Amino acid sequence: MLNKTLIIMKIFYAKMFFAIAITVSLSMLAVNCKKDKVNEDPPQLPPKTSMVMDFSDFSSATIDYTKNIDSTSYANHNWAGLNVGVWNLILTVRLAVPVASFYEAFNHQYVQEGDNLWSWSYSFVAQNTNHTAKLTAMYIESNQKIQWDMYITKENVYSNFHWYTGYSAISGLEGNWTLNESNIKPTPLLSIDWHRNTSTGSSDIKYTNVEPGGLENGGYIYYAVSPSASLNATYDIFNKGENKLINIQWNKNSKNGRIKDAKHYLNPDWHCWDSSFLDCNCP
Question: Is pTM beyond 0.70 here?
Answer without folding.
Answer: yes
